[in-house]
DNA sequence: TTGTAAGCGTTATCAC
DNA sequence: GTGATAACGCTTACAA
């Protein structure tokens, strides 16, 4: 049976001092004499004292925990962000509570409530795509809990956020294809309603326009973010636009499906059709030819999100939202690099 | 400014009853009259009452949080396990605190101490490869906190665990290559000191022996788990064993490196050399030819780990460790399937 | 430099 | 059925 844990009172009794002094000694309070501090430290080891953070939290109102909301922890994109967040927060003695929303509003709302009940010191969230309202996110702020978005954000809420510049990423990807000689460039578009994909579409069109290439809306295909969808859509593209010479996919997953279908159809990539995806999923470097893509600096995104949170709780000046927009980088590989 | 939160005392005052009654009503205590219960529920909504789990935890000793220790959250293997764990625990109203060890003992020890300070109700861990001792894991049990291992375990500790049958996975993978006609099969071995890799080596040898094929130790190559290592070792293999016709890699990452090098050398896969990896990493399905591999049921592993934990805390009978060994499944693809 | 005392928001054990 | 009270383990004015 687990015998009663040692508390600061046990240490106090042992040393014939009070619990208050023990508490101060353990917390490095400068008012405490070196002798006492040492005695307390020794006794703590001897009695195997383990601080009870819950008790301290109840008193101070700080738990040193932060909630992180992601759609799914097994998606490489979010795993990488979680990694970045945990690294930075652990160094600052914060722990990370991970909750998954599965892109659904109900799970998201439940998770937010759970986190608030646990009295987390902050919530970092990638908003679920299935969320249409956000009264529960308002509650977070009403509760005085710092809130911060990354990746997919509610732009109408005045909270800090970390995102990548989807417009710029798409622009650069398209520009690259143009530089490789492509003129009839298909865009595989994502969720019509998503700001993120709207921005990618905007970037695609801007790059074409800036290069003096006519924007042809029939070259824009709505396509889910998975290989099977990419495979299915390839036939349509080839049938409707036999003159296509480049494809910019807003998803690596769709891109790899297209790549496979093109190869099955005997079409040379990148010779006849050059391809570039988006996200720099780990698998992109392993396909043949390796898939060009746009890196979103997910690890950095997590780190910055954590840093913004730390700044926010440390600042005593009134809070003003910071929006950090990361510059995506092109990762150019065989699928889009034609010989010079 | 965050005004003072409503507590059960506020509700009590409002209804001219005591906090004890409010607490009982909120917790569904049957002794409370339906009228009171309803009044409390109404007042809770009206006053926007939000329970303070920290206060309850201090009193009850239960936090409804569980610590999960993994080497790195961005490795697909662990992301998938975390997903499984979180899904099961969230349904049981537990939250998951994720900490990363980066395969190092120091970080692991720090993480364990942090989790104990946070009074987690349990710890689920994949032991860091860099850990040589485990006095801090002993402390977890001394503290009366349920401990459970998955993936990489301390076999000398009497705690429950969930692992896959590495021996069986390796046996089946090797057997499959033999069935495809391979006779000179190289094994790419992992960490020499790791039980897990020792088991895979054992499975490889057993399958050969059972098929009446001579076990040749020079066919066993120690190789790190990354594509570059696989690429480097390919030249050695081809030089030293030009008659090799199959490769069983204990790592998908090494396997894909080998695959690339073989193709660069103009060797037909699977015709001349068939390849099978281990882990069913997401990228294996996208390489060309798609890489055969051994699936470890990571999502299930996470779910089972969580279920074992829940059983352990619910059981009132004395604790006996359960060891769950999952059967790995072959995932056969182009890299090892020769035409019939 | 240290002690005293109050309190964080709950829940549990008595009573009545 | 409900109330009164203590307690969980810690921190922090305020005193001394």
Automatic annotation (TrEMBL), chains A, B:
<dbReference type="GO" id="GO:0003700">
    <property type="term" value="F:DNA-binding transcription factor activity"/>
</dbReference>
<feature type="domain" description="HTH lacI-type">
    <location>
        <begin position="6"/>
        <end position="60"/>
    </location>
</feature>
<dbReference type="Pfam" id="PF00532">
    <property type="entry name" value="Peripla_BP_1"/>
</dbReference>
<dbReference type="Pfam" id="PF00356">
    <property type="entry name" value="LacI"/>
</dbReference>
<keyword id="KW-0805">Transcription regulation</keyword>
<protein>
    <submittedName>
        <fullName>LacI family DNA-binding transcriptional regulator</fullName>
    </submittedName>
</protein>
<dbReference type="InterPro" id="IPR010982">
    <property type="entry name" value="Lambda_DNA-bd_dom_sf"/>
</dbReference>
<keyword id="KW-0238">DNA-binding</keyword>
<keyword id="KW-0804">Transcription</keyword>
<dbReference type="InterPro" id="IPR001761">
    <property type="entry name" value="Peripla_BP/Lac1_sug-bd_dom"/>
</dbReference>
<dbReference type="InterPro" id="IPR000843">
    <property type="entry name" value="HTH_LacI"/>
</dbReference>
<dbReference type="GO" id="GO:0000976">
    <property type="term" value="F:transcription cis-regulatory region binding"/>
</dbReference>
<dbReference type="InterPro" id="IPR028082">
    <property type="entry name" value="Peripla_BP_I"/>
</dbReference>
